[in-house]
Design a protein that fits this description.
alpha+beta
Length: 308
């Protein structure tokens, strides 16, 4: 496979995994995105400039997740490896349950897609499978690729995803605390087994959530109940349960976003509840944190590239 472009711009949205009961299966694209400008150069070196999230902590060499994913994608289609000059504008908060690592992986693969002669060789299905090899589960990568709401699963042939219908008028927001929580820590407190009754409870709620998203927003509150992961994770993130309790006491559908500690809100006319983009004065001190919001009122598209 030959390269036909030497510069590409990529944009990939943040995502929320789980959506409450859909553990490791349901996901949703959110209204904030990372943007990368990637140039292929003759020199073998890698140069990375980072603005925004992670500017003080992320590596600037071959170990960067974007570079690793891009090189894996080029190998996948038999394309030659090249030197890279990358400018990353990172807007997705890190360590907050908003899919920042999945976005980085998808961005790297999507950049390779833009550089090669036949982008369809890295079809969304192939991209999802490659991304899942990095992530271990596809619930964040799927909405980052396809946009909107998705359901993802794995079998012996790899990872798969299907877009879900999301009715006009259903809004989303993420409420982001100051604190961070590594995904590995959030997963470490989950039990190896759960009661059969809890598993059955979540199956019913996840099915109800798919139906609620498709046009029954009045069911979102009941549909976002969970017994598989949020209760167990409460011990490692005090802020999220406090915020969820505060919102659900008002009848607002609120869940942990991914592994947390951000909180995902689903509903209609969220602005009437004071949920908006920016600092949230009404939320000050809930769970001992300051909070900011990202409010999305339209379906968020998935990853895309532009050849420059």
């Amino acid at each position: 496979m030959r390269l036909v472009a030497d510069r590409v711009r990529v944009q990939v949205p943040a995502t929320a995994g789980n959506l409450g009961p859909g553990f490791d299966a349901l996901g949703l694209a959110l209204g904030v995105a990372d943007e990368l400008d990637v140039r292929a150069v003759a020199a073998a070196d890698v140069e990375i400039e980072i603005e925004g999230e992670g500017a003080d902590s992320l590596p600037r060499d071959e170990s960067h997740l974007v570079v690793r994913a891009l090189r894996e994608a080029l190998d996948q289609v038999g394309a030659s490896q090249v030197g890279l000059v990358i400018h990353a504008t990172n807007r997705i908060p890190h360590g907050r349950g908003l899919g920042s690592s999945a976005a980085a992986v998808v961005a790297g693969i999507w950049a390779a897609r833009g550089l090669i002669a036949e982008p369809d060789a890295l079809s969304p299905e192939v991209v999802l499978d490659l991304a899942t090899r990095f992530e271990g589960h596809p619930d964040n990568a799927a909405p980052a690729i396809l946009g909107g709401a998705t359901v993802a699963w794995q079998d012996d042939e790899g990872a798969h995803a299907s877009p879900l219908v999301m009715a006009t008028g259903i809004e989303t927001a993420v409420l982001i605390p100051d604190s961070v929580l590594p995904t590995t820590q959030a997963r470490s407190v989950l039990p190896a087994q759960v009661p059969h009754a809890d598993a059955a409870f979540n199956v019913g709620r996840a099915a109800l959530l798919v139906n609620a998203l498709a046009g029954r927003p009045e069911d979102l509150f009941a549909a976002t109940e969970d017994r598989l992961h949020q209760g167990y994770r409460a011990e490692v993130m005090a802020a999220a349960p406090a915020m969820i309790d505060h919102l659900r006491a008002q009848g607002i559908a609120a869940v942990v976003s991914g592994a947390g500690p951000s909180v995902l809100v689903l509903g209609t006319d969220l602005a009437s509840h004071g949920i908006a983009t920016g600092p949230l004065e009404w939320a000050e001190g809930i769970g001992g944190e300051s909070w900011r919001g990202i409010h999305t009122v339209e379906r968020v598209p998935g990853a895309f590239f532009e050849r420059l």
